[in-house]
Amino acid sequence: MILAVDVGGTYIRTGVIDKKGSLISFKKNRIAEVIKAEEGNQVIHQLADYLQDAMKEPGVLSNIEHIWLGVPSIIAKDRDYILNSPNVPALQDIALKSILEKTLGKTVSVENDVNLSTLGEYTVLDHETYRNVIGIFIGTGIGCGLILNGTLFTGATNLAAEFGHLPTRVTGKRLQCNCGLYDCIEVWASGSYFEREMRKAGREDEIPYVFVNHEIDPLKNLIVETFFDYLSFGLYTLNSLLNPNLFIFGGGVVNMEGFPKERLLNLPYGRLRHPSIAESLETKFAILGDKAFIYGALEYYANHS
After folding, report:
1. Secondary structure letter of residue 153 according to DSSP
2. Which of 20, 47, 163, 230 qualifies as a FRET site for 37, CA 20 to 30 Å off?
3. What is the pTM of this model?
């Protein structure tokens, strides 16, 4: 059995799955309920306690062969040390893999969360038809996973596909991203953007409904139009650079009430150099939902164990 854990900016999700792909258990909690500390050692202890609790299902603990952690972070080449974690800063500068292995007595692997979710979604696709796939998952931040020529692509040092941190300005500085840089796409195309702008206007109670009737609300309409403007900039860039067969969209934002799903599905077609590109391009929503990362972890385990 494999224990797969998705540590997100808002939620932490945990699933136990066997090697045949049967889901044994699944649970979802707010990250603030699990990781309450800010100091590294305390964070590790709280996360370890949560994982121990997840393995307490009857017959699970002794059968867990591997623990996979998906984190919204950039991870060192050794896939141990967390270099930067803008939306879960409590994980930053921690040797996550080695400490958890020592604490739990289990083999642990750490991977970017959206890499695992994209790989999970890829497992249910026809691999002959879809060889080049881009997963875009919009939540607290905005993450990206790349399947290139049928293989998960993570770059020379495991830092590829940081779509949310593509720059949107060449000169000057407007707004600082949680990553420390300025004017990343994520600053304007993520759940944290909605929260920031609605709180600034004193309308934080309406954050979950930012898309509802936005056309008749000047503030919400400005927020939504800005979101799509910046998102389209990034998608056009990926289209031109990688020429994918398929964009897969997922994450909490696309499931918010009133979200204009057709508009998002049509967005990558807005700027193409030739009509033939559209003929080979498809857009879809993720179908595995909160559990995509679990199947991605299983696929990764099968191919790397």
Report:
1. E
2. 163
3. 0.91
- Whether pLDDT at 265 is above 90: yes
Q: Which CATH superfamily hosts domain 125-286? A: ATPase, nucleotide binding domain (3.30.420.40)
Is it true that 2-113+290-304 and 125-286 share their CATH fold?
yes
User: What number is the average pLDDT over the span 55-77?
Assistant: 84
Cα separation, 66 vs 3, whole angstroms: 6
What is d(CA 230, CA 207) in angstroms, rounded to the nearest whole number? 19
Q: What are 150-172's pLDDT values in tens digits?
A: 999 999 988 899 999 999 987 77
In this structure, what token pair is assigned to residue 198?
């609605």
CB-based contacts of 283: which residues, under 8 Å, 6+ apart?
A: 246, 247, 248, 249, 264, 265, 266, 267, 268, 269
Cα separation, 116 vs 146, whole angstroms: 10
Sheet order of strands, 23-30 included = 23-30, 11-17, 2-7, 66-71, 108-112
pLDDT, one tens digit per residue, over 81-101 is: 999 888 888 888 989 999 999
Domain range summary for the chain, segments of one domain joined by +? 2-113+290-304, 125-286
Looking at the chain, the whole-number percentage of residues with pLDDT higher than 90 is 64
DSSP 231-247: HHHHHHHHHHHH--SEE
Measured distance between the N- and C-terminal CA atoms of the chain, rounded to whole angstroms: 13
